[in-house]
Design a protein that fits this description.
70 residues; mainly alpha; elongated
Length: 70
């Protein structure tokens, strides 16, 4: 396994960037919607962007953020 990482550093870097971008978007959205269970799951579970994409396009899309002015 270590040999694979050292022979494919560009692919490893691209996977890391891919995962971090989707994780960032999903964590931002979960925090904004105050969904602490989703936030925790996304933060802990590393699925190379799959859980994050599912959350963003299937779960978070159903919720709207309402701004309440005092």
């Amino acid at each position: 396994m270590i040999d694979w990482f050292s022979t494919h550093p560009t692919l490893v870097l691209l996977l890391l960037i891919w995962s971090l971008v989707w994780k960032g978007f999903a964590l931002w959205r979960a925090a904004g919607l105050r969904q602490k269970y989703w936030f925790t799951a996304i933060l802990i579970v590393n699925t190379f962007g799959l859980l994050e994409i599912i959350y963003l396009f299937l779960v978070a899309r159903k919720y709207k953020i309402e701004v309440v002015e005092n």
